[in-house]
Design a protein that fits this description.
single chain, 104 residues, alpha+beta, Double Stranded RNA Binding Domain, two-stranded antiparallel ribbon, elongated
Amino acid sequence: MNAENKTLTVSIVGKDYQVACPAGEEESLREAAHYLHTLMESIRASGRVVGLDRVAVMAALNVSNELLQSKNLQAAAQAKAAAQVQTLSDRVADAISANKQMHI
């Protein structure tokens, strides 16, 4: 284990797991473990999924879906920002061109 890593114990659905964690990322890991614990407990409490392994798979699918939706939203926002920057750049270029033509 890297000297910059720490071992952190997190509890998820009543089971403790020791996880290597980069120094300074402990709170983020604890937050992620808590989120996963809450999601798995919610899935388990619904009664529609039986077995901890199936609950874990459903939680993983939910988290993966959230991640992909977030990436898609981010990509759309980046594309929109790039289009706006291009529009502004074109306007500036047009203004400079018009200004040069006025001084000719």
